[in-house]
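Report of the visiting student (M.T.), summer placement. My assignment was to run the structure pipeline on a short list of targets and document each run. The first record concerns Anti-sigma F factor.
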Amino acid sequence: MDNEMTLSFIAKSENESLARMAIMSFIAQLDPTVDELSELKTIISEAVSNAIIHGYEEDGKSVVTVRATLIGGTVQVSIQDYGKGIGDVAQAMEPLFTTKAALERSGMGFTIMESFADELVVQSVEGEGTSVTFTKKISSAHASVM
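After the run finished, the structure tokens were exported:
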């Protein structure tokens, strides 16, 4: 492991940008491209939003934890909540599936995350919470590591 960070924050929507900016600052040492930064920001925003909105029902008091690890030219990020969990992860990951249609949620969060990540793993237990972990290889980091 080259480097690691952990950030915990209250489950408030305004803290989504905190998570995004902290991870972007952390991975800056890999010199990601603008496209890679955009993709990473999107994945983090989607996962943190899901934890806040779905995991904790926007209670504003529970905690979301983000862990990031750099290994060579790859970043791995885990977003963890200890909220209500997902009963059927496979169904939740289907495009357009949403439990929050009244909030105008599109049901594309996991689909978007999968399209931008090299690997995406979602683990969840009802009543215990959800962990979303993704990895992404940073193209420019490979050249600078050699």
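Residues 3-139 form a domain with the Heat Shock Protein 90 fold (CATH 3.30.565.10). The beta strands are 3-10, 63-71, 74-81, 119-125, 129-137. I thank the supervising group for their guidance throughout the placement.
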